[in-house]
Write the structure tokens for this entry.
Amino acid sequence: MARHSILDTLNDSLRKDTLAGISTMRFPPGQVLFSAGEHCRGLPLVLGGSIKVQMTGLSGHSIVLYRMGSDDICTLSIGCLMTGRGYRAEAIVEEETEAAIIPRGLFDRLMDQSAEFRLGIMESYGRRLDDLMLLVEEVAFHRMDERLEEWLQARAAQGQRTLTITHQELATELGTAREVISRLLKELERRGQVGLARGKIELTGLKKRSATA
Amino acid sequence: MARHSILDTLNDSLRKDTLAGISTMRFPPGQVLFSAGEHCRGLPLVLGGSIKVQMTGLSGHSIVLYRMGSDDICTLSIGCLMTGRGYRAEAIVEEETEAAIIPRGLFDRLMDQSAEFRLGIMESYGRRLDDLMLLVEEVAFHRMDERLEEWLQARAAQGQRTLTITHQELATELGTAREVISRLLKELERRGQVGLARGKIELTGLKKRSATA
DNA sequence: GACTGTTCAGTGATAAAGTCACACAGAACC
DNA sequence: GGTTCTGTGTGACTTTATCACTGAACAGTC
């Protein structure tokens, strides 16, 4: 049964029709939800799990743009839906994900008949735009060592003690080269802040960086 | 009289009301349309001219995110309008600009009553998202010398022979440091591709870069 | 004209990050 | 066991960023 906050805003009649018109699906880790160039068949609502959205540029390098999780809307799909152009990025399931797809016709009807639905869509768009603007600034101006430590700290803050991730994947997260990550991690290991093993990073003593402005 | 393609999509009655509800304004070069933190009072439609949107990060550095020109919609404003949060970026008029502001109430009514208006808004959003994704990739992975030459070539392609711009402004365009631009421009001058003077860059012999993959 | 303050540009030194090339270790498969 | 593949470590080098400073070009004042 689909649980998504944007559905809660609908009136009874619309909600009933919507629930009847969508089907929820489960996707296992590693599954590619869509890839660059593909066309979009409907608007996915993420009910739970975690999906990363990344793009590969002309240079052949990849970078993770943002993640979608519980209660998110796949903003990228809206653009594809409206303009008819293919996706520019690809979406890869990280943790087992449940999602509902709103087909085009139903989406149009919801946009037409529910101001609350429209508001939800626009808010989602606004947040995504904000995220991307912040990412641009981060990529352009922040130091790699800081970005890496912040990324690891965010994971530590979620309670994760041991990460299963390769240096290459981490490089894609931050939009840099694998060697850069390897060297920075080695340095953190020397300082006793992480433990390294093949495909694993153990978060031991990450400390807040002091005054590195 | 406001000329904007999104108004053409409206039916006679809505268009009449819309034209009555908006007022067009002119802004001179250098004028700041909005700056970071400010709140948004309506949706600007750009009728003509050129506006650059740039943000300043925690690092204190600035980067130009995109430009708005004739027939554009200020997508950033929609997010602010819907979420009530302040702008994250600032908009600066480059060439004398004419714009019409659609007030909040009218915007809501148009979203409610015109599927074509909604489509226009969503398309505009999709394009902006695409632009930003491409920018992320460019900033993360492309070489500065190539980006600079491409930027100059784009101006040359518009027919501009002499640019009035400082090295610092150009650095903000590309999200780098002024010194980097100075050095790269000097190199281009040595190769006879540009002429340099205080506050001016003359585009003489820019040639396509050959196989710099 | 000379004097002053401001903005813009040039450049050396150094540090950080990206690129290239390759060695080697651990895991997986026969 | 051996072979293959993937992931990691590292040296050498290039590009970009940062810091510190110099001097040139311009505007305003006397």
Notes: Residues 143-145, 176-177, 179-180, 183, 198-199 of chain A lie near DNA strand C (CB under 10 Å from a C1'). Residues 115-141 of chain A form the longest helix (27 residues).
